[in-house]
């Protein structure tokens, strides 16, 4: 286990959960499902079952350092790896990998988002451990694929070769497809050889370093040169300059879609990326006409069905004649939109910022 590490990504702003998720207090620090723990706390608790606490690192933005410390007091300061500017997932993963590789060149690393839901923790732990063992033996880049239950257009899809196995349950990846149309998603589901892209990756430090060197060599060189600065007084200054030179690119586009040693492990552990209000609606308790209401003490609904209602405690809300709507109020902002248009929330945030500035974002 000493060679196993976890990089938990916690730098996003969760704009699709606006107005509850804000730049100053994003989704990963919220108790979205009312469990008594924030999403980052539940993610951290899962990984404590897989790797030693001292081998868990958080990738976040500098503005969230204090929030991470508040939510995860078990961590030492050096386990919180902060990017000075947001440059998508590839630069922060390259940075985190370089720091871990300096500590342990034989490291095997699992990279995972901080804000996903996993219902079957035991199955999750078993799957990750199996992937870590495979990455220790083979030169491969592993992604976990979720068996799809519906033709969802909000997820990326992975097509795999059923007859090309690296080892048990590890299939060669054929294609990646980002958020297809409903018609294409239905085709994917019917074919039986597509999985949802979970955004959870497993690889050895050597394998991912080789991939960075091949496909993102300029970026790799930045963090390779930074080795002499890591865990010293000059690290922050070096990283601030280095990140400015990095391209804004995801690990999926930068490496996973280009490398020829990418494999997928099918998984089924009750996963949701909790990416939208609809995903919370799906997981929430509903009344007999399909309404999911949080803080329901002062909410009255007439002739309304299949609505997601999330309002502050103590707020009096009366709704009549609403069907299949999202109603969310937080931070002096009220959002009302059809559930079918939930993917528009991200654009709404852009429009609000452009019209009213940063105050409401």
Automatic annotation (TrEMBL):
Enzyme class: transferase
Catalytic reaction equation(s): alpha-D-mannose 1-phosphate + GTP + H(+) = GDP-alpha-D-mannose + diphosphate
UniProt-listed Enzyme Commission number(s): 2.7.7.13
InterPro entries cross-referenced by the UniProt entry: GMPP_N (IPR049577), ManC/GMP-like_b-helix (IPR054566), Mannose-6P_isomerase_type2 (IPR051161), NTP_transferase_dom (IPR005835), Nucleotide-diphossugar_trans (IPR029044)
Biological process terms in GO annotation: GDP-mannose biosynthetic process
Alphabetical UniProt keywords: GTP-binding, Nucleotide-binding, Nucleotidyltransferase, Transferase
Pfam families recorded: ManC_GMP_beta-helix (PF22640), NTP_transferase (PF00483)
Single Gene Ontology MF annotation: mannose-1-phosphate guanylyltransferase (GTP) activity
Domain Nucleotidyl transferase positions: 6-287
MannoseP isomerase/GMP-like beta-helix domain residues: 298-349
SUPFAM superfamilies xref list: Guanosine diphospho-D-mannose pyrophosphorylase/mannose-6-phosphate isomerase linker domain, Nucleotide-diphospho-sugar transferases
Family: Belongs to the mannose-6-phosphate isomerase type 2 family.
PANTHER family: MANNOSE-1-PHOSPHATE GUANYLYLTRANSFERASE (PTHR46390:SF1)
Name of this chain's protein: mannose-1-phosphate guanylyltransferase
Native species: Pseudopedobacter saltans (strain ATCC 51119 / DSM 12145 / JCM 21818 / CCUG 39354 / LMG 10337 / NBRC 100064 / NCIMB 13643) (Pedobacter saltans)
């Amino acid at each position: 286990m000493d060679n196993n590490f976890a990089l938990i990504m916690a730098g996003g702003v969760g704009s699709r959960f606006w107005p509850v998720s804000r730049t100053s207090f994003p989704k990963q620090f919220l108790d979205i499902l009312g469990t008594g723990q924030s999403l980052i706390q539940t993610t951290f608790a899962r990984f404590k079952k897989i790797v030693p606490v001292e081998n868990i690192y958080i990738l976040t933005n500098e503005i969230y350092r204090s929030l991470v410390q508040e939510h995860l007091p078990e961590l030492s300061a050096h386990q919180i790896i902060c990017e000075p500017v947001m440059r998508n997932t590839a630069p922060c993963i390259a940075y985190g990998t370089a720091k871990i590789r300096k500590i342990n060149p034989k490291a095997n690393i699992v990279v995972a988002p901080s804000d996903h839901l996993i219902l079957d923790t035991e199955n999750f732990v078993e799957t990750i451990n199996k992937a870590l063992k495979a990455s220790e033996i083979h030169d491969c880049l592993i992604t976990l694929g979720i068996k799809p239950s519906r033709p969802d257009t909000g997820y990326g899809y992975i097509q795999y070769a059923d007859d090309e196995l690296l080892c048990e349950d590890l299939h060669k990846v054929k294609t990646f497809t980002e958020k297809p149309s409903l018609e294409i998603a239905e085709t994917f589901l019917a074919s039986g050889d597509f999985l949802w892209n979970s955004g959870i990756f497993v690889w050895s430090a050597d394998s991912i370093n080789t991939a960075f060197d091949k496909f993102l060599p300029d970026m790799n060189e930045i963090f390779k040169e930074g080795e002499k600065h890591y865990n010293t007084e000059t690290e922050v200054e070096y990283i601030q300059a280095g990140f400015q030179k990095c391209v804004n690119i995801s690990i999926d586009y930068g490496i996973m879609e280009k490398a020829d040693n990418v494999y997928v492990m099918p998984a089924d552990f009750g996963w949701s990326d909790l990416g939208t209000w609809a995903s919370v609606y799906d997981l929430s308790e509903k009344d007999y006409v399909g309404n999911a209401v949080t803080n329901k003490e002062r909410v009255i609904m007439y002739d309304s069905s299949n609505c997601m209602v999330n309002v502050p405690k103590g707020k009096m809300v009366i709704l009549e004649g609403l069907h299949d709507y999202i109603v969310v109020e937080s931070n002096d902002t009220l959002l009302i939109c059809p559930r079918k248009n939930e993917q528009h929330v991200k654009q709404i945030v852009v429009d609000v910022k452009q019209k009213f500035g940063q105050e409401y974002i």
